[in-house]
Specification:
Strand content: 15-25%
Number of strands: 13
Shape: elongated
Number of domains: 2
Strand order of the largest sheet: 3-2-1-6-7-12-13
Distance between the termini: 61 Å
CATH architecture of the largest domain: 3-Layer(aba) Sandwich
Mean pLDDT: 94
Order of helices and strands: EHEHEHEEHEHEHEHEHEHEHEEH
Structural class: alpha/beta
Low-confidence stretches: 250-260
Bound molecules: 6-O-phosphono-beta-D-fructofuranose
Length: 362
């Protein structure tokens, strides 16, 4: 390439999480210090790539970034470059802007694009790879729902935040003889609820993968009450759903919409009726997405960032840098795109939780 240094593009897409800046730092430091590459960062995910909003990243840009939450590149979690909504004389139209992305990458002389994101970001990267773009993906999101890697960047930090919240709820539940429900994120997978529920000593854990019967949840609470434990800690994944036919329909409860966000309020109202114990809800929300990355996430981010640049140097494209059984391993994008890693309902974590007396409402 006429003596010009190899150039790598990088973007962060999807929901933010602790560890994003750590991985940007690892990519930039490795590219510049080890391989002498230039790094072009596109802002706000694929939107920046379409609109050619970029910044050439220098070592100074990533200095002091290791423990900072968020992403210095910005992100969006609802932009699909294959269906960009444009306003055409007042009429909204969807336009495929992948051609513009290819042109912009060519204009910058970028050899490969590193996309740091969740399933949607990685799936878009896969679709671009089908059009000839050389893509390397790095898995991140607090949900840990990406196949081909033991953990995603941001997941452990979110589990730490949720566990700390559960620890804090115990004393209030016991003092007031209450049901304390903590609603955590995780989208369609129950990993955050399962792991923080185990770590935080929850009595009941409700996850999307195991539809709950509210009557069985109530039974667990009443069993505890009979042993003198007139309080319970319930960790609810935002995607938890009631088992078919188990709905406790009571017109005094708010209309159940089975939507994300707020499922725990519905469950709390039903449990008050069924157990005659007061219930209180805490929705942890975006606290799980913010703050500084845990040391585990800083190490994971650094490992995956270094590995992604090494893959670029070795010409290993159209794969995701994953870690399986603690070993770095590139996973083909076809194994990741449009997929979701759910909690195995007969897996070891569910089993050990049950051994500890946890009820999953089933
Ligand atoms: O995917 C990460 C995540 O935090 C999910 O756990 C959550 O359901 C979703 O993003 C929230 O999306 P938004 O940031 O668009 O509200």
């Amino acid at each position: 390439m006429n003596g010009q240094r190899k150039r790598i593009g990088i973007l962060t897409g999807g929901g933010d999480c602790p560890g994003l800046n750590s991985v940007i730092r690892a990519v930039v430091k490795t590219s510049i210090n080890i391989y002498g590459y230039e790094i072009i960062g596109f802002t706000d995910g694929y939107m920046g790539l379409v609109n050619n909003r970029f910044k050439k990243l220098a070592l100074s840009d990533v200095s002091g970034l290791l423990d900072k939450g968020g992403t210095i590149l910005g992100t969006t979690d609802s932009f699909d470059p294959f269906k960009m909504v444009v306003d055409n004389d007042g009429e909204k139209q969807e336009r495929d802007m992948s051609g513009r992305i290819i042109d912009n990458l060519k204009m910058h002389n970028i050899e490969c694009l590193i996309v740091i994101g969740g399933i949607n970001t990685i799936t878009t990267g896969y679709r671009l790879s089908l059009k000839g773009v050389k893509v390397i993906a790095i898995p991140k999101n607090i949900d840990n729902d990406i196949p081909g890697t033991d953990a995603t960047i941001g997941f452990i930090s979110a589990v730490n935040t949720a566990t700390d919240a559960l620890d804090k709820l115990h004393s209030s539940a016991e003092s007031h003889h209450r049901l304390m429900l903590l609603e955590v994120m995780g989208r369609r997978a129950g990993w955050v609820a399962l792991e923080s529920g185990i770590a935080g000593g929850a009595d009941i854990i409700l996850i999307p993968e195991i539809p709950y019967d509210i009557n069985l949840v109530a039974r667990k609470i009443l069993e505890r009450k009979r042993t003198g434990k007139n309080f319970s800690i319930i960790c609810v994944s935002e995607g938890a759903v009631a088992a078919k036919g188990s709905e406790y329909i009571d017109d005094s409860c708010p209309e159940y919409t089975n939507q994300m966000y707020g499922v725990s309020s519905r469950i709390a109202a039903q449990l008050e009726k069924l157990t005659h114990l007061e219930s209180r809800v805490t929705v942890l929300g975006y606290l799980q997405r913010g703050g500084e990355p845990s040391p585990t996430d800083r190490i994971l981010s650094t490992r995956l960032g270094v590995e992604a640049v090494k893959m670029a140097a070795e010409g290993i494209y159209n794969k995701m840098a994953g870690i399986v059984n603690n070993e770095l391993c590139p996973i083909d994008l076809t194994e990741v795109a449009n997929k979701c890693k759910h909690v195995p309902v007969d897996g070891e974590l569910v089993r050990i939780a049950r051994n500890m007396g946890v009820s999953f409402g089933d």
